[in-house]
Write a structure and sequence with these properties.
The protein is mainly alpha-helical. It has helices at residues 2-24, 28-49, 57-99, 117-130, 134-154, 161-165, 174-191, 197-205, 207-212, 217-236, 241-258, 263-275, 289-292, 297-312, 320-345. Helix 2 runs antiparallel to helix 3 (57-99), helix 7 (174-191) runs antiparallel to helix 14 and helix 8 runs antiparallel to helix 10 (217-236). It starts with a helix and ends in an 11-residue tail after the last helix.
């Protein structure tokens, strides 16, 4: 945790400079000044075009002379705008170069991954599906399959066809995409719309599977739904007492109709939920405040739902590709330093028990 905090503080100057670049490092101000210059020239041209040469030949020269100072000022403003943009870009580039120094990556003689391209392709495709990038995953799988077929016909392969596929065709399954699409729909409803009904319906359909895993997700969904029905109007209109009473009635009706089957396993928790009714006008100071006033409850519930959803598909909650990439990025500086020391000493790492 301490290392993570130190890294966060180390990134603060770069984040601040990035925000400054986003606000001031654009050409919006310069384009505005350029447009003003164009408008100024257009008006002068129209004024000159409206003058009859025989009527007043000196008027044209006078109008052009009047343009000299405004045009000069406009060009100076444009130049200043460009200088400000260049300054922001230069400062940001210096900070990036200072923070992310150009280092030679360690050379890898082992070609474990290069010998298994389909495993890598499967990990990438699965990551895209898990992230909801269905069209990108489809395109990637199509191209990866074509490339795999071309390699199989042009090279002398020693592995069997089943080993070559490594499940790439299974990722093209429409059922798998529908599963992830459904997951993202439920998460959207849960986090953005504060609508738990799709998640509750899914949990009821998967009730037996969740119970076999020892998961309490179905009850947690019902619990948060009870709390939301109870406090929704109170949070939106804290001074409207009639709405508080309506929320209490809705929560009680939900508990009687939809949470009765939880009593054998979660009787104590249900009693706590119903006990909060006595503190309805003043939940903030009640013993049940941590249950009913919890800003992290929705995020925690979304995380738990994602974990259980992926588990029922036989997948981990986090993307293996993301975990492997993160672990590799953390370990890479140590390997780079190790290789630098070994080159400096002219030694080689020959055994697992040897420290160079």
């Amino acid at each position: 945790m301490a290392a993570s905090k130190d890294q966060g503080w180390a990134m603060e100057p770069l984040i601040e400079e990035h925000e400054r670049l986003s606000k001031s490092g654009t050409l919006a101000k310069g384009l505005e000044d350029i447009q003003k210059t164009i408008d100024l020239l257009s008006k002068a041209r129209e004024a000159i075009a409206a003058i009859e040469p025989r009527q007043d030949p000196e008027t044209t020269s006078l109008n052009l002379a009047k343009l000299q100072n405004p045009i000069k000022t406009s060009f100076e403003d444009i130049q200043k705008d460009l200088q400000d943009v260049r300054k922001c870009q230069t400062n940001y580039a210096k900070l990036v170069e200072k923070k992310f120094k150009d280092q030679i990556l360690p050379s890898m003689d082992s070609k474990v991954l290069s010998a298994q391209p389909n495993l890598v392709n499967r990990a990438i495709a699965m990551h895209l599906l898990r992230e909801g990038q269905f069209s990108v995953a489809s395109t990637f799988l199509t191209e990866a399959t074509k490339r795999s077929s071309m390699d199989a016909t042009t090279e002398d392969m020693t592995m069997t066809g089943t080993e070559q596929d490594v499940g790439l065709d299974s990722l093209k399954s429409e059922d798998l995409r529908k599963q992830f699409a459904n997951m993202y729909y439920i998460l959207h409803q849960m986090k953005d719309e504060r609508n738990l009904l799709p998640a509750i319906e899914w949990a009821r359909e998967k009730s037996e599977e969740l119970e076999k895993r020892g998961s309490n997700l179905e009850f947690e969904l019902g619990k948060v739904q009870f709390v939301w029905l109870f406090v929704r109007d109170h949070l939106l209109m804290p001074n409207a007492r009639p709405h508080i009473m309506e929320g209490r009635q809705r929560a009680l009706a939900y508990a009687k109709h939809d949470m009765a089957h939880f009593r054998p396993h979660y009787l104590k928790e249900i009693q706590q939920l119903c006990g909060a009714i006595a503190f309805c006008p003043n939940l903030e100071r009640s013993p049940y405040r941590r249950i009913f006033i919890n800003n992290d409850a929705w995020d925690q519930l979304a995380t738990a739902f994602t974990k259980e959803f992926c588990a029922l598909l036989g997948l981990s909650a986090d993307s293996p590709l993301y975990i492997a990439t993160t672990a590799g990025a953390i370990a890479l500086p140590n390997f780079a330093k190790l290789e630098f020391i070994m080159k400096g000493k002219g030694t080689e790492w020959t055994t697992e028990h040897e420290i160079p």
